[in-house]
Design goal:
The structure is a single chain. This protein is mostly helical and 327 residues long. The protein has one domain. It is built from 15 helices and no strands. Helix 2 runs antiparallel to helix 8 and helix 3 packs antiparallel against helix 11. The longest helix has 27 residues. It is globular.
């Protein structure tokens, strides 16, 4: 039993290669630090949704609500004197977690279609509230006067994005390792049981509702942390953080990368942001058309088939990097 537990949480060589490459990206592409920062933030946001969709089977069209709450919380804290990034990040994640806990009981009710409508409704309500109380949020003009203190009192946020990129990558790595440990724990295994067959899981003693409320709250905290990172590294917050397209984009990211194995959100975020950056430079007016076309191709070809091909290439690459024989 102990050996099996160690095997489940052990980090294999492919994961080491993945993170070595990810950490080396800012050094290899010093002119793309702002893009890498955006990728890290979107990856954390996608990771939060993957905890819901991939492991609990809860689909959401309003996940931007938690992202936006985290962003506004971080922005307001900095504007009113609490400009320390790490403290602001923790408090912003906590604020999003509270919202997630309070709304989780609504999401547990009804079918998947009901959950879609409820989550989307929560997101739209928060968007309208942020627009209505413009004296607090800045409304359509955005939240002005957000100035962050140097990270750890040593590293100031610069226009080139060096501190922002390192900060976002470090937070992504730490939260990813925590999520990885979570989904491979007995709690994570029970979540998979609830997703596979809720009635059977309940019949063997798994408290399904408690598990779902817990993971919904944790996922909300992760999304709030992603929103806080965006607010802190850009030092600006607008209504865009609560917009419906945020929820749609993060779902698209999981379609591109796959759900249910954590790395899907990270890979999908990189693909989405790199494509968006390149296509926007080539065809600024029609970049969304090409991303939509890619999505159609993936659906027609079968995402699993595409994912298997990518994994084979990745396995071959990592084995070559590690000096192992390729079958």
């Amino acid at each position: 039993m102990a050996a099996d537990w160690v095997r489940r949480i052990a980090v294999n060589h492919r994961e080491w290669v993945f993170w070595i490459v990810a950490i080396a990206l800012p050094l290899l592409f010093p002119g793309k630090l702002l893009l890498i920062n955006e990728i890290a933030i979107l990856a954390l946001f996608a990771l939060s949704l993957d905890l819901l969709l991939g492991y609990a089977g809860i689909i959401s069209l309003g996940h931007a609500a938690f992202f936006g709450v985290g962003a506004y919380a971080a922005g307001l804290l900095a504007k009113h004197g609490l400009a320390e990034p790490l403290v602001g990040l923790l408090l912003s994640a906590a604020a999003a977690a509270v919202l997630g806990f309070l709304t989780s009981f609504l999401v547990l009710r009804g079918s998947d279609l009901t959950r879609l409508m409820v989550t989307m409704g929560i997101g739209l309500m928060l968007l309208e509230l942020a627009n209505r109380f413009d004296t607090i949020t800045g409304g359509a003009d955005g939240l002005q006067g957000v100035v962050m203190a140097p990270l750890l009192g040593l590293f100031a946020f610069d226009l080139a994005g060096r501190t922002a990129c390192a900060y976002s990558m470090a937070i992504l790595l730490v939260l990813f390792l925590l999520a990885r440990r979570l989904v491979r724990s007995p709690f994570g295994l029970s979540l998979r049981a609830v997703k596979a067959n809720r009635l059977r899981a309940v019949s063997v003693g798994v408290p399904a509702d408690t598990r779902l409320v817990t993971i919904y709250t944790i996922a909300a905290a992760y999304a709030g942390a992603a929103g806080a990172l965006l607010a802190q590294t850009t030092q600006f917050v607008s209504l865009d953080v609560l917009d419906f397209h945020r929820s749609a984009d993060v779902l698209l990211v999981l379609v591109l990368g796959g759900s249910g194995y954590l790395y899907g959100g990270l890979i999908g975020a990189a693909i989405f942001k790199v494509m968006q950056d390149w296509l926007a430079a080539q065809t600024p007016q029609y970049w969304q058309f090409w991303i939509g076309l890619l999505l159609v191709v993936i659906v027609l070809a079968g995402r699993e088939r595409v994912a298997v091909a990518i994994r084979r290439r990745w396995t071959a690459l990592t084995r070559r990097f590690a000096g192992e024989p390729t079958p």
